[in-house]
Amino acid sequence: MKTAKRGGMLQDNSKEQAKDTGLAIILICLLLMHFAQYDFLLLPAIVVLVVTMTCPGILAPIARMWFGFSYLLGSVMSKVLLGVIFFVVATPIGLLRRVFGADPMLMQSWKKGTQSVFKDRDHTFAKGDLEKPY
Questions:
Q1: Which H or E run contains 130?
Q2: C-alpha distance from residue 32 to each of 17, 35, 42, 66, 76 (Å)
């Protein structure tokens, strides 16, 4: 199965992708038929099943659109999902920390005194300190 990409879009549609697209169309038809009571979708589902099993190459243009749509949907929804998670989780935590006065970076005590803000370290470096700095 070849899936060469140029600019994020699929360029080469194989038989496997066409079969996957046909099976997805069949599944959508059957689910709509079952849950929405669209009984007229049985015949298109059977036709797509026969086409998928006998000559899946016919579904190549539809497969190209289907995989392009799925790529677009995946790239958009990942950003939406991360944005929702940020605003649902990180923003309330930050607001609560601000309300309760948390100061993990010690910004409130920064430059309050007359002395320098740098702390003196009386440490002589040995060879072992510099071997693995991280």
A1: helix 127-131
A2: 22, 5, 10, 18, 25
Start-to-end CA span in the chain (Å): 43
Encode pLDDT of 108-125 as tens digits: 777 676 676 677 788 888
pTM of the model: 0.54
Angle at Cα 77 formed by Cα 13 and Cα 5, nearest 5°? 25
Kind and range of the H or E run holding 65:
helix 60-85
Question: Is residue 77 in some structural domain?
Answer: yes
Residue 131 lies in a domain: no
Specify the pairing of strand 9-10 against strand 5-6. antiparallel
Asked whether residue 47 is assigned to any structural domain, the reply reads yes
How far apart are alpha carbons 124 and 44 in whole angstroms?
Answer: 80
With vertex at residue 82, the alpha carbon angle to CA 69 and CA 24, rounded to the nearest 5 degrees, is 30
Domain contains 116: no
